[in-house]
Amino acid sequence: MLRLPKFEIARPTSIDEVVALLSEHGDDAQIIAGGTDLVPNMKHELFTPKVVVSIADVPDIAGVRVESDGTLAIGAMTTLHDVASDERVRSIAPALGHATALISGPQLRRMGTLGGNVMLDTRCQWYNQTHFWRKSLGYCLKKDGTVCHVVQSGQKCVAAASNDSAPALMTLDATLVFHGTDGRRELPIDDLWRADGIYNKHVSGELLTEIRIPATPRGHRGAYEKLRDRDSIDFPLLGVAARVDWDDAGDRVARAEVCLVALQARPVRLKKVAELLVGKQRASAELDGAIEASAERAYKQCRPLPNIPGDHEYRHEMAPVFVRRALRACVRASENASDAAGV
Amino acid sequence: MAARDKHGVDAPWSAGFQVVGRPSRKIDGLAKAVGHAVYADDITLPGMLHTKFLRSPHPHAKIRSIDTSKALALDGVHAVITGECMPIKYGVIPWTPDENALATDKVRFIGDEVAAVAAIDEDTANAALELIDVDYEVLHAFLDPDEALTRQDPQIHEQSEANKKKRGHRGNVSKHVDLEFGDVDAALDAADVLIEDEYTFHGTTHAAIEPHCALAQASPDGLLTVWSSTQITHYVHRALARVLEIDASQIRVIQPCLGGAFGGKSDPFALEFVVAKLALLTGRPVKCLWTREEVFYAHRGRHPMQMRYRTGAKKDGRLTGVDAKILIDGGSYSSFGLVTTYYSGQLLTGPYDFPAYRFDSTRVFTNKPPCGPKRGHGSVQPRFAFEVQLDQVAEKLDLDPIEIRRINFQGENTQTVNGQRITSNGFMECLDEVERASRWKERRGKLPRGRGLGVAGSMYITGTNYPVYPNKLPQAGIQLQADRSGLVTVFTGGNDIGQGSNSIARAIVAEELGLDPMSVRVVAADTDLCPVDLGAYSSRVTFMVGNATIDAARKLRKLIVSAVAEAWEIEEKRVFMARGEVFDLESRNRRITTREAFHLAEERYDTLGTTGAYNTPTLGGDYRGGTIGASPAYSFTAHVVEASVDEETGRITVENCWIAHDCGRALNPMLVAGQMEGSAYMGIAEAVMEEHAVNRFGLHAGPSLLDYRIPTSVDTPELHALIVESLDPEGPYGAKEAGEGPLHPSIPAISNAVFDAVGIRLTHLPFTPGKVLAALRAQRSKNLATPVGTGGA
User: Fold this and answer.
1) What CA–CA distance (Å, rounded) separates B761 from B774?
2) Distance CA A311, CA B283 (A)
């Protein structure tokens, strides 16, 4: 099998120690939580950290709790399985429950963590390959090379954000708690991303410890629809998270959100797409029409590239279908229920 | 065919079958389930070194020079070798030796082996690879088979100028076969309907869970032992002797427990030669385990084919003739390609009667991983094309797709248009079974739009009478040893690759000698200990090793029965063996244990052992290539697939697959059902999911089990195995094959089910959602263009 490059493992027992190690080693350090993304990437020599900082022994960064104001706080080290099967998550943040239940397969969901999925590296068919393969190719813009093979003569890496949890968390207004040398800070998840496939985040050298989701109203509905070839294991070829909040009377759409992943370097929020639903009457032709219009608008706004494996034109065709399906799942859903089962 | 080769279909003793025909666990099932089984990579020897390969980064290049000095100087490196130390070419087909264990002058695909390092561990070996300098002269790479067909130079396998003068410029053609049986043009002219269409089959690979692994040890007195995850020990043995220039008697090849093969471990592979050579050079045991990526480069998977078929039929549905033209993308080496090219035409001539038939198949070399044999070798692709075309004929004639298959049934005890002898043939019963089980009559054509049923049939060989190298020796040999403990040990060269051949050998011996199967042990696939068997390919093992086992067991039984009869002073026919005992049929209280009977026989005849063998009868048409595809028995299969189509996403879901397979007699119905389900699974996977693709740079598009999508358990439909037993006159107790035939119909049956579901014909594999959507769009625009009232249903 493929060999792991040599590295040292550090096992800090507090957040402060982690921060100190990250500060000491800078780019030579890499955090390992569940390892389900990092280990294969290290085997492919995409990352060759000198120090791998395990956060397995850091206390109080795993687990789900609901705070007195209704905020859902999920420790970054909580496994995807524990997130997906948590009744509070499924009730307060159904889209996150759906999305995490569909990440990879059952074994890896018991190792992989929510924090790891949020911080997932971008993916590309020209990048997620062995060193021999990439060397034969002549490397690429994202790693070791100067040429993009997705957009020929492209100057910017377009590797795709591929984390199913990201769009779900975006519809839920999640904030992320990071710890760095300057202490603790909270960052709205939308502010995490930048449109650069080489590294699609604004944060580095800090430890993600918690994902916070503000209380959702009683009329909140959420859903996540994932396009993939197999019904297990695979990364998304397209992921659509949707949110529809009914007003207090339960009659009209008070708020709607649509966020997508596996298109470009950052997960995207289609604000204008979701807005079409606001104010529409429950179970009405105008709501159905608005959903159709949202789907059409999503098609116009999405431009999938041949970055991840598969037919990108097909992914484009599926954008409206999956937006429609996610929105319909929201408007059909009964109160705060999630019926997604992970496979 | 000698008398020893035909043993009848009946139970050996009058009480009927005791072991055969009953579902029983595999001989190694428990060991595998609990992790006790020893695979090649589980073997570790003292002082063992590890090998890694340097591979070509170019799809096509000349090697100007290789400098290994820096690698050799690295601490922990024991040897670095290149092609020049093994210049003799080999190939599994003796007429086309075009491979070197390591490249000698040029490389022909990205991943081709160039050099190898033996070092104290894998990391050191990998580090050494980085220190090898190779100077390449890059050549034009052929990635498109059409270009390889029309552009002669550069040649991927160069001919000498003298050879070109003598035999003509071959260009990049690997093999061309053009055979006609009857007057096809006249037959098609005489047809009432003629369907002509094009079909393509993409590349797929085996994806056995165990990667290839080999380990070699050279003893101080020069004996070489190689453990390898091969499915054909005998050919590896021969190839090692040839390439290493060592007498075969100095080489021992052992196949440990194997984690799947499916044809992908049939060729001799570079790692076997390399670990052997390095063991000889270093005096240390040397192991190599390929990574999954390397297994994708080794490939030998199913050949992509571009196929054009023309089929003519009379109004009543009877076929008049079939005409095929096929372009086969062989990848970079010959492998079994000569046979593949013949099989692409030779194996289509059943279960239907073709009055006239022609095929013109050309295999070309391209700069891609080499293709080879995969489950249903050479015939899965044409079967797909033809069975879809047959549905098109039925549609045009407004015939039920099952009915048109019945109308054209060739019958039992007949001969195909290309001269193959057909003995038992249970195809009609297969059709009946799938028709009944799928509730075809009530449901086909009547399900709501989006859901449909499709049928397809097929035939496949049960071994072939064409041994890979010409010889008159038996194709299968067996030795039995009866121990004083009452144990019988079977020594077989047959390769158990998970299909259960060792279990079959055990069952037959137990049946013949009236033993509990636990009193029979099997030693297999060790060239020092076991008589030659030609290996696990062409679905030959149950039939050939089974017959050889019956032969040996009956000889042993005769010794025991005669010794007991002599001791008891009774006629031999009164001696009966059952349940571990031997008794007198006319005086049942007179009984001894089989162990005691063995003692009597050993006293009478000395050490107890017998041999058995099997060879095929003379078969095949009287023309060049007429023996290729000639089999002592053919299996027959019919599938009905129930598929649903999501017209929004284009995604096909196979809901059910009914698999009726005529395997002669099911010696172990549990194993037969397992092979039927596994075959159908593999076919369905190839149809809707798998694709062994090479990108525009000549790189394998995704050499990993993440990117090469094989279905998971949740992607697998309900598979219903319906065993049909036609009892073949020459099979062991009437048995035929079950390991490859049941794959064939699943792919066309899906296409035909999709037609029933939504009215589109899928003729180009794989059936991706994108292609389904495109076909649905084309259907809609055609319907819009058709004036109301004239459109079809």
Assistant:
1) 11
2) 51
Report the C-alpha gap between B505 and B522 in whole angstroms.
8
Instruction: Identify the CA nearest to B508 among candidates B598, B600, B662, B612.
Output: B612
In the block, residue with structure tokens 């054009």 = B308
Interchain contact A333–B (C-beta under 8 A): no
Tell me the whole-structure pTM to 2 decimals: 0.97
Say if residue A341's pLDDT is above 70.
no
Count of A-B CB contacts under 8 Å: 72
**Which whole-number Å values give the CA distances from B767 to A236, A312, B520, B718, B754, in the listed order?**
20, 16, 47, 19, 10
CA distance B514 to chain A (A): 46
Q: In Å, how far is A1's CA from the nearest CA of chain B?
A: 5
**Per-residue pLDDT tens over the stretch A106-161:** 999 999 999 999 999 999 999 999 999 999 999 999 999 999 999 988 899 999 99
pLDDT-derived band at A335, boundaries 50, 70, 90 = low
The per-residue pLDDT for range A148-163, each reduced to its tens digit, is 999 988 899 999 999 9
Q: How many whole angstroms separate alpha carbon B2 and alpha carbon B6?
A: 8
Please check whether residue B638 is in contact with residue B660, taking contact to mean a CB–CB distance below 8 angstroms: yes
Cα of first residue to Cα of last residue in chain A, in angstroms, is: 26
A96 three-state secondary structure:
helix
Tokens of A295: 């789907």
B793 touches A at CB < 8 Å: no
Judged by a CB distance cut-off of 8 A, whether residue B291 touches chain A is: yes
CA–CA min distance A217, chain B (Å)? 33
Cα dihedral: B386, B387, B389, B394 (round 10):
140
CA quadruple B514, B520, B523, B525: dihedral, nearest 10: 50
Whole-angstrom distance, CA of residue B764 vs CA of residue B323: 19
pLDDT value, residue B467? 86
Q: A125 vs B707: CB contact, 8 Å cut-off?
A: yes
Contact residues for B436 (Cβ-Cβ < 8 A; gap 6+): none
**Cα gap B121→B287, rounded to integer Å:** 10
DSSP state of B539: T
Mean pLDDT of chain A: 96
Q: Is B555 on the interface with A (CB under 8 A)?
A: no
Mean pLDDT by 10 residues, chain B (793 residues): 81 94 95 97 98 98 98 98 98 96 97 98 98 98 98 97 95 98 98 98 97 97 96 98 98 98 98 98 98 98 98 98 98 98 98 98 98 98 98 98 98 97 98 98 98 98 90 96 98 97 98 97 98 96 98 98 98 96 96 98 97 94 93 98 98 98 98 98 98 97 97 96 97 98 98 98 98 97 73 41
For residue B287, what are the β-bridge partners? B50, B215
Q: Distance between CA A77 and CA A57 in Å, rounded?
A: 10
**Interchain CB contact of B770 with A (< 8 Å):** yes
Helix B337-346 with B380-397: angle, nearest 10 deg? 20
Residue A107 forms contact with B (CB below 8 Å): no
DSSP string, B328-371: EE-TTS-TTHHHHHHHHHHTTS-SB--SSEEEEEEEE--SSSPP
Chain B contact set for A233 (CB, 8 A): 706, 712
Q: B714–A125: do the CB atoms touch at under 8 Å?
A: no
Token look-up 């002797």 returns B241
DSSP-assigned letters across all residues of B137-188:
EE------HHHHHH---S-SSPPPHHHHHHH---TTEEEEEEEEES-HHHHH
Please tell me the predicted confidence (pLDDT) of residue A152.
Answer: 87
Q: What pLDDT score was predicted for residue A278?
A: 97
Q: Return phi, psi of residue B606, to 5°.
A: 70, -170
In chain B, the residue whose alpha carbon lies closest to the alpha carbon of A309 is B707
